[in-house]
Amino acid sequence: MSTPATRQTRESDPCELKSSVLTLPVLKLHDTDIDQIAEHLSQKASEAPGFFHNTPVVIDLTPLEQSDAEVNFPFLIGRMRGLGMQPIGIQGGSAAQRESAELMELAVLGRTGAGNRAPSRKEEKSPNETTSSKNTLLISQPVRSGQRIYASGADLIVTAQVSSGAEIFADGNIHVYGTLRGRAMAGIKGDVTARIFCRNLNAEMVSIAGRYKVSEDLAGQHWGASIQIYLQGNKLVVEPI
Amino acid sequence: MARIIVITSGKGGVGKTTTSAAFAMGLANKGHRTVVIDFDVGLRNLDLIMGCERRVVYDFINVINKEAKLNQALIRDKRCKELYILPASQTRDKAALSMEGVGEVLEELGRDFDFIICDSPAGIEHGATMAMYFADDAIVVTNPEVSSVRDSDRMLGIMASKSRRAENNQEPIREYLLLSRYSAERVNRGEMLSVEDVQEILSLDLLGVIPESLAVLDASNKGVPVILNSESTAGQAYHDAVTRYLGEDLPHRFLEVEKKSLFGRLFGG
User: Fold this and answer.
1) Cβ(A182)–Cβ(A145) below 8 Å
2) How far apart are CA B37 and CA B67, in angstroms?
3) Rounded to an integer, what distance in angstroms lies between the CA atom of residue B151 and that of residue A186?
4) Distance between CA atoms of residues B175 and A226, nearest Å
5) Is B115 helix (H, G, I), strand (E, B) or coil?
6) In a 10 Å sphere around its CB, with 0-12 CB exposed, 13-18 middle and 19+ buried, how is residue A29 labelled?
7) What ipTM was reported for this prediction?
8) Cβ B154–A145 below 8 Å, yes or no?
9) B 133-152 residues with CB below 8 A of A?
10) Chain B partners of A145 at a C-beta cutoff of 8 Å?
11) Helices marked H in chain B — which ranges?
């Protein structure tokens, strides 16, 4: 006779609206001469043929904001599509420029202040660009099995142990001043200069910018030692420290 | 207000219910009004271990659903008048444990009792999270064995983030380690994790080490909490643990292999 828990079941909804963080390429316009722009783009496209294939692109009008120059959107969009880009919206720009973009049914995304970098990392970062870590996330309690810690846009320092079954990630470097038994993944957004430092290597897995080694590969002279790990080309190097 | 203690582990079969029964009896025997609650809905065992399985009329779920009053469901222990048991339902689903319902019952009990012991089920699902949500103290029962240690570590992580104290940014739950089924001989032979090995991974306050003892099975069969068997090593170790919990600093016993005299070796014991 017990009634089921009074939780709202969502299985019957036809769809869900969720928020997400996406990384998209941004085309920054410094000129309004569409032909020149198209020529420059087609040169880029030939250098990276696989890159432009119905690729969603945001057009950044910030450099043209001051001049309030007229942008021929229909023409621009047509040329971009021809090169395999899918313009989905604009960023920055004067009121008039934004209005004409809207007429072409381009989304008007959050403006970036003229001259200052937007703090959010939803913007362009090309895959191998280094993230300068401005902050550090400090964890001084043991990271228990099953816990996940992510230092977004920062380095991660743990002054206690990281248990087996725990996962720690950072866009920057990772330092564990204790025993590292779980997984540590540094430079997860692609920073190949990120490093991992730990006092006692017992990790299940370590990775830098996607290149990884599991504990089986790490076993050997450095197991249980105080080490640093960095990338040399595409290989992870483990060195005593 | 009562102090709420959760007896938890993550891993099953390590000695949570045995510990809940022993601890509750130990505290009550020292004069503290204690109630021990079985949170294992559908797989109740506490009533068997406490020896009151033939007196269960109403249970925890009945009280939460307002089908019975708390004093109708509470069973008074026949051996110790300060000790009460609130059994779990055997027929219902753990989904009936709502946070509001559990909170209300604990608040009502808190007015009348000094200690509330929550015997958690195994695992990290709803029953276990309900048992630990309101806790002030946690006794993490662990066997000196790798999977038990890892599961305890997992449970500690969950308590650090999902308890009421964690969610309200209050002082965190006080965590204690209770190492159970310890065998000094096997540790010496290198077959079993030692206290130090376990502490290297868990790093907790060591409340007690309960040695492996035949008396535990005997106690469950008889429905008598093992702490009442003062001749058994387990009973004595539980008694030490309760004393330590209440603030007295006792050295840990049963960590070394007992040196038997010739007499002892000839006649067992």
Assistant:
1) yes
2) 17
3) 26
4) 30
5) strand
6) buried
7) 0.82
8) yes
9) 150
10) 150, 153-154, 157
11) 16-29, 46-50, 60-64, 70-73, 99-112, 126-133, 146-162, 164-167, 184-188, 195-202, 215-222, 233-245, 262-267
Q: pLDDT tens, B134-179?
A: 999 999 999 999 999 999 999 999 999 999 999 999 999 999 999 9
Q: Give the N- to C-terminal CA distance of chain A in Å, as an integer.
A: 64
Give, for A47, the enclosing helix (H) or strand (E): helix A34-47
- One-letter amino acid of A163: S
Nearest CA in chain B to A149: B157
Please tell me the distance from the alpha carbon of residue A58 to that of residue A30, in angstroms, as a whole number. 14
Q: How far is CA A33 from the centre of its chain?
A: 32
Exposure class string for B79-111: b at 16+ Cβ within 10 A, else e = ebebbbbbbbbeebebebbeeebbeebbeebbe
- Tokens 């582990």, located at residue: B9
B211, β-bridge pairs: B182
Chain B residue with minimum CA distance to A164: B150
Closest CA to A181 of A157, A148, A204: A204
Each residue's pLDDT expressed in tens, for chain A with a length of 241 residues? 444 444 454 567 888 888 777 888 888 888 888 888 888 888 887 777 667 778 888 998 888 888 888 888 888 888 888 888 888 899 888 888 888 888 888 888 866 533 334 344 444 444 444 445 468 999 999 999 999 999 999 999 999 999 999 999 999 999 999 999 999 999 999 999 999 999 999 999 999 999 999 999 998 889 999 999 999 999 999 999 8
In our burial notation (b when 16+ CB lie closer than 10 A, e otherwise), range A188-211 reads bbbbbebbbbbbbbbbbbbbbbee
The conformation of residue A162, written as its DSSP 8-state character, comes to B
φ, ψ dihedrals at B135, nearest 5°: -70, 150
Return the closest-CA partner of residue B245 out of B18, B19, B13, B57: B19
Q: A214 vs chain B: nearest CA distance in angstroms?
A: 19
Tokens matching residue A4 = 């089921």
Sheet of strand A55-60: strand arrangement: A26-28, A55-60, A85-91, A107-108
**Cα–Cα distance, B102 to B127 (Å, whole number):** 11
Chain B residue whose CA is closest to A143: B157
- How do beta strands A154-158 and A148-151 pair? unpaired
Q: What angle do CA A130, A134, A139 make, to 5 degrees?
A: 110
Q: Each residue of B217-260: pLDDT tens digit?
A: 999 999 999 999 999 999 999 999 999 999 999 999 999 887 77
CB atoms within 10 A of CB A213: 17
Is B29 in contact with B79 (CB distance < 8 Å)?
Answer: no
